[in-house]
Amino acid sequence: MSGTTRERPLTPAGRRVLDVAGRLFYERGIGQVGMELIAAEAGVTKKTVYDRFGSKETLILAYLRARDERWRAFLGERLAAAPSPRERILVTFDAMGDWLRTNGSRGCSMVNACAEVPDPGHPVHKTAAEQKAWLRGLYLELATEAGYDAPGPLADRLVVLHEGAVVMFSVGGMAHATDIARETADLLLTA
Questions:
Q1: Is the distance from CB of 28 to CB of 63 less than 8 angstroms?
Q2: HTH tetR-type domain: which residues (predicted)?
């Protein structure tokens, strides 16, 4: 993608645009937010938005990547502080609960974007699939690190548990969904 934010650093105006777009896309949905609104709330011209990002699609992808980077950094801090490999697995659920309560009342931005863009060939789906593959890979790495005999099937179960908790928190209104997911993960790790 020529001219994207992945190839060059953001200017202060570009950072404002991305921050505003991210907030609006997450809170209102990507289909409900136009470039005019983003420009107005970022205090820039619509031309600046297009000069920096090129298209709404590129801006949406930049938003998804930026939000994912923030989640990974947030989770990484929690993982680094966990005292054991087994606890590193469980702390992913604690971190997810804290993230959802402070950053994610509408659930997963990747899932939300895929719901709004139903074409499976759209780049949004590729970005979301990459994020979900990363999460499954993280669980595989953690399960292997903790010495479990069948880390692949365990990683599958943990990622399904994780994603299910996000949905039940945001869509099902279950405030304690991540606590239940953690307890269930603990049972899986003990079995």
A1: no
A2: 11-71
- Tell me the domains of the chain and their CATH numbers: 65-190 (1.10.357.10)
Contact 164, 101 (CB under 8 A): no
pTM: predicted TM-score of the whole model, two decimal places: 0.90
pLDDT per residue, tens digit, the chain (191 aa), is: 333 444 568 889 999 999 999 999 999 999 999 999 999 999 999 999 999 999 999 999 999 999 999 999 999 999 999 999 999 999 999 999 999 999 878 899 999 999 999 899 999 999 999 999 999 999 999 999 999 999 999 999 999 999 999 999 999 989 999 999 999 999 999 98
